[in-house]
């Protein structure tokens, strides 16, 4: 567990720290620049987090199907997960 958990925790720590440091550096010029950075940061987070969440959920379902020795169902679920993640990202970029 630690072999996988420690690198994942360090990756999250670096990501969160970089966002925090950038906010502190950009906060010096003024409120307008800070607000613009926050908007861009939130858009980046949505574009990153929503497909990542879908991928994690799909990974769990695919792993269960592989463990149950159902490769056809796993393949279908993996394609559905990729399609859903791509659609969610495209929907954020090009809202209807």
From TrEMBL:
One term under GO cellular component: plasma membrane
Keyword Transcription listed: no
Coiled-coil region list: none
GO terms of molecular function: antiporter activity; xenobiotic transmembrane transporter activity
Keyword field contains Signal: no
UniProt entry keywords in alphabetical sequence: Membrane, Transmembrane, Transmembrane helix, Transport
Transmembrane segments: 42-62
One Pfam family hit: MatE
Stored InterPro entries: MATE_fam, MATE_MdtK
Highest taxon listed in the record's lineage: Bacteria
PANTHER family: FMN_FAD EXPORTER YEEO-RELATED, MULTIDRUG RESISTANCE PROTEIN NORM-RELATED
Protein name: Multidrug transporter MatE
High-level lineage: Bacteria, Pseudomonadati, Pseudomonadota, Betaproteobacteria, Burkholderiales
């Amino acid at each position: 567990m630690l072999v996988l958990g420690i690198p994942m925790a360090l990756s999250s720590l670096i990501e969160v720290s970089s966002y925090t440091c950038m906010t502190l550096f950009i906060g010096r010029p003024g409120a307008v620049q800070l607000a613009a950075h926050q908007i861009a940061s939130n858009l980046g987070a949505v574009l990153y987090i929503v497909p990542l969440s879908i991928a994690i959920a799909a990974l769990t379902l695919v792993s269960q199907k592989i463990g149950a020795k159902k490769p056809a169902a796993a393949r279908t679920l993996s394609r559905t997960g990729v399609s859903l993640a791509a659609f969610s990202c495209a929907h954020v970029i090009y809202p209807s």
